[in-house]
Amino acid sequence: MRARRDLPAWQHGWWGGARHVPSPNVSERPAGTRPSLVVLHSISLPPGRYGGDEVEHLFCNTLDCAAHPFFEQLRGLRVSAHFFVRRDGAVLQFASTARRAWHAGVSHWRGRDNCNDWSVGIELEGLEGLRFEPAQYRALRRLLRAVVSVHPIEEIVGHEHVAPVRKRDPGPGFEWARLKRFSGAVRGVDTRTWPGSMRTG
Ligand SMILES: [Zn+2]
Fold first, then answer.
1. Ligand 1 centre from 81 Cα, in Å?
2. CA-CA distances (angstroms) from residue 154 to 16, 38, 49?
3. Catalytic residue among 28, 54, 72, 123
4. How confident is the model at residue 44 (pLDDT cuts 50, 70, 90)?
5. How confident is the model over 53-105, as pLDDT tens digits?
6. If you measure from the C-alpha of residue 2 to the centroid of ligand 1, how many angstroms do you get, rounded to a whole number?
7. How far, in Å, is the centroid of ligand 1 from the Cα of 1?
8. 180 falls in which pLDDT band (50, 70, 90)?
9. With helix as H, strand as E and coil as C, how does 64-116 read?
10. Dihedral over alpha carbons 79, 37, 44, 125 (to 10 degrees)
11. Domains of the chain with bracketed CATH
């Protein structure tokens, strides 16, 4: 089969459409577990400031926690995500999707715990509750097309849905409908049960 020009190749769980920044904060998925869930997040450091390299440093344990008062609470934190989508649509990758990134924490979805074990984590540069850029939706759709081409993804949810007591990202500023328009490319995804469509308030 001829590779599509708009779908860069994968190698060992690393996507060709991203800049690779390997994080040490990864572990193995449980034996035989393939990711069937995508968990979307939002993050910016310090919150609401975009364009810097602080998130990259956080995920690589190299953030200077003395550089900003907000960073003090991040001292010693060991976290990562598979992908980070910047405001301009640039995509960074910190972990192979074959491995387990540390993004969801204590989490639960449809009767299963520990979403990190069986999900791909995607961070969007932003602030929960606020809007995201058109370039981010374009990049996210392209990334999701690539992810579902190699993993048996069944659902795309937010951190706020798998850890509702603790987390609120990406929040009401994220337009789930913009992913529904793309759902034709996600075979097997049941858009009727997406959080975006379940939310009525
Ligand atoms: Zn999150």
1. 9
2. 23, 8, 33
3. 123
4. very high
5. 999 999 999 999 999 999 999 999 999 999 999 999 999 999 999 999 999 99
6. 36
7. 37
8. confident
9. CCCCCHHHHHHCCCCCCCCEEECCCCCEEECCCCCEEECCCCCCEECCEECHH
10. 140
11. 10-23+31-200 (3.40.80.10)
Q: Number of helices and strands (H, E) in the chain?
A: 5, 12
Amino acid identity for residue 156 in this structure = I
Quick one: which of 12, 85, 10 has its CA closest to 43?
85
Round to whole Å and give the CA distance between 8 and 3. 8
> How far apart, in whole angstroms, are the C-alpha atoms of residue 107 and residue 165?
10
* Residue 104 CA to ligand 1 centre (angstroms): 6
Ligand 1: centre distance to CA 109 (Å): 14
pLDDT digits (tens, 9 = 90+) for 161-175: 899 899 999 998 998
Q: Is 123 part of the annotated catalytic residue set?
A: yes
Using the predicted structure, report yes or no on whether residue 109 has a pLDDT greater than 60: yes
**For the chain, how are helix, strand and coil distributed in percent, rounded to 5?**
25, 20, 55
